[in-house]
């Protein structure tokens, strides 16, 4: 398997993919490892994972460069990602004892009722490349904290980062046989589905997620899916700082080249603010530098070459149906997977750009006349990850957000994840939650103890 630098198209290295036999052997290693790992006390596991987080901090420059070289994101965004992952780990470690320890529910003479959170056992994590540290720690930190052993399959586009994570976990004291990395792409992921894991945790596209869910179903084990989105954002007429809002929301759409599961993917603006918003949005987009990710740029290369064709198709489909192109629209570089930040107006819901996940630097902005029209358009999607409303009034935002079937709702913010809140998708955006106390317990099976005596 070649690891390619998407900014230069150079081969960084070549790795050997795991064979089905290798994977089965790694599972056996994990099986023994889990028995030893689970015997460590929770405070011991917390201490080891704290050391892991400290190692991320001390090695951040090397790790950020490895990440940037294999996924193409600007170096500063790689550093931001590692620091963001450390913040999530901090919350998880500080809250592990509160949410993973035994809970005494009833304690009266002659009767005690207790919930114990037992680990699932052998956990399989098939992961994505867009934020390998962030989506990785959502799974392997709480899984290890609660006493599981983990088979981590990084995306084939982020394998070097996966191997660095393995090295640092082991250096921190996670025993060799409680964490293993599976190297490879689709076929290796598929082979993992044939093995008897006791829980599957997947981050990736709807198409793959649906396939995994069906294939894992007969095992009757937990299967959580964190999938894509077509996240809407609505700017009402009572927003006063239209320019500032345009800049902030442009970042919500284009950070990491729009390759975020919760990137803003479509924007609706009240007609009163529409012209001012669009002008400020385009001005902001034009101010960004795009170039090599190792330079000081805001936009660098896309991770996957194939995505360029997806974006070109969305642009040409929109233009054919009457959209107006205000910026970008094409791949201008003959080396590396670059796509200009693209802004389309005069869009509608017959166009792919307003219906299908773009996962790239492209946005459609549409004029609406009131909340009812905005709400109907925001609801018009198969996805349900996040939705965002910018307005002066919290009550108005909450009233709209309550009617949208999404896992997260944002008032005057967007493209945001918090370790304290559940991260979850609905409909084609997924099943189950990571992060928060729910995400800590997602890797456990509760057992109710009825104790008389
Ligand atoms: P993808 O579905 O192509 O791949 C994800 C993982 O699945 C990779 O490790 C891949 O090797 C593996 N895989 C592919 N086919 C498989 C199969 N048949 N069986 C088993 N494993 C298989 O997705 P991607 O391109 O890596 O990630 C982009 C998608 O992930 C976007 O849709 C994005 O929105 C979504 N995403 C969601 C979240 C979230 O939290 N909801 C976070 C990050 C990314």
Bound compounds? nicotinamide-adenine-dinucleotide
Instruction: Bin the strand percentage.
Output: 15-25%
- Strand elements, count: 20
Distance between the termini: 61 Å
What portion of residues is helical? 40-55%
What best-fitting shape do the alpha-carbon axes yield?
globular
Poorly predicted ranges (pLDDT <50, ≥5 residues)?
Answer: none
Mean pLDDT: 98
What strand order characterises the main sheet?
A: 12-13-14-11-10-15-16
Main β-sheet description: 7 strands, mixed
Radius of gyration equals 23 Å
Number of continuous helical runs? 15
- Secondary-structure class: alpha/beta
Secondary structure elements and pairings:
Layout lengths: L1 E3 L6 E4 L5 H18 L4 H17 L1 H12 L3 H26 L2 E6 L2 E9 L2 E5 L5 H14 L3 E5 L5 H14 L6 E3 L4 H8 L5 E5 L2 H11 L6 E4 L4 E5 L6 H13 L9 E7 H17 L18 H15 L3 E4 L14 E4 L6 H4 L6 E7 L2 H9 L6 E5 L3 H8 L6 E4 L11 E2 L5 E2 L1 E2 L1 H6 L2 E9 L1
Parallel strand pairs: 5-6, 5-8, 6-7, 8-9, 10-11, 10-15, 11-14, 13-14, 15-16
Antiparallel strand pairs: 1-2, 3-4, 4-20, 9-18, 12-13, 17-19
Helix pairs in contact: 2-4, 2-6, 3-4, 3-6, 4-5, 9-10
Nicotinamide-adenine-dinucleotide binds next to helix 7 and helix 8.
């Amino acid at each position: 398997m070649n690891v390619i630098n998407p900014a230069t198209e150079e081969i960084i290295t070549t790795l050997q993919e795991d064979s089905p036999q290798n994977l089965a052997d790694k599972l056996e290693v994990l099986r023994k490892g889990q028995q030893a790992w689970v015997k460590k006390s929770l405070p011991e596991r917390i201490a080891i994972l704290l050391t892991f987080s400290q190692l991320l901090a001390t090695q951040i420059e090397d790790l950020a460069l490895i990440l940037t070289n294999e996924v193409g994101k600007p170096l500063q965004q790689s550093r931001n990602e590692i620091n963001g992952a450390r913040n999530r780990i901090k919350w998880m470690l500080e809250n592990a004892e509160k949410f993973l320890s035994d809970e005494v529910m009833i304690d009266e003479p002659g009767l005690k009722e207790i919930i114990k959170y037992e680990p699932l056992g052998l956990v399989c994590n098939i992961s994505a490349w867009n934020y390998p540290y962030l989506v990785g720690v959502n799974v392997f930190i709480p899984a290890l904290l609660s006493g599981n052993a983990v088979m981590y399959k990084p995306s084939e586009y982020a394998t070097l980062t996966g191997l660095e994570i393995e090295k640092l976990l082991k250096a921190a004291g996670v025993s060799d046989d409680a964490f293993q990395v599976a190297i490879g792409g689709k076929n290796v992921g598929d082979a993992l589905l044939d093995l008897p894991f006791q829980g599957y945790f997947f981050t990736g596209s709807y198409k793959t997620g649906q396939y995994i869910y069906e294939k894992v179903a007969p095992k009757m084990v937990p299967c959580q899916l964190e999938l894509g989105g077509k996240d809407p954002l609505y700017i009402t007429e009572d927003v006063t700082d239209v320019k500032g809002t345009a800049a902030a929301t442009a970042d919500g759409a284009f950070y990491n080249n729009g390759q975020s599961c919760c990137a803003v993917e479509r924007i609706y603006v009240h007609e009163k603010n529409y012209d001012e918003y669009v002008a400020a949005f385009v001005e902001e987009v034009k101010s960004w530098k795009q170039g090599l990710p190792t330079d000081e740029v805001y936009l660098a290369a896309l991770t996957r070459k194939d995505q360029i064709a997806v974006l070109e198709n969305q642009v040409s489909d929109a233009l054919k149906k009457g959209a107006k192109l205000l910026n970008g629209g094409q791949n201008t570089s003959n080396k590396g997977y670059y796509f200009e930040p693209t802004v389309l107006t005069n869009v509608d819901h017959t166009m792919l750009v307003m219906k299908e996940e773009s996962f790239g630097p492209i946005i459609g902005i549409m004029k609406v006349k009131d909340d009812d029209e905005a709400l109907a358009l925001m609801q018009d999607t198969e996805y349900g990850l996040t939705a965002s409303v910018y307005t002066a009034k919290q009550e108005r935002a909450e009233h709209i957000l309550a009617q949208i079937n999404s896992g997260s709702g944002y008032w005057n913010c967007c493209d945001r994840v918090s370790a304290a809140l559940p991260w979850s998708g609905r409909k084609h955006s997924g099943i189950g939650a990571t992060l928060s106390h729910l995400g800590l317990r997602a890797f456990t099976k509760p057992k109710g103890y009825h104790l008389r005596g």
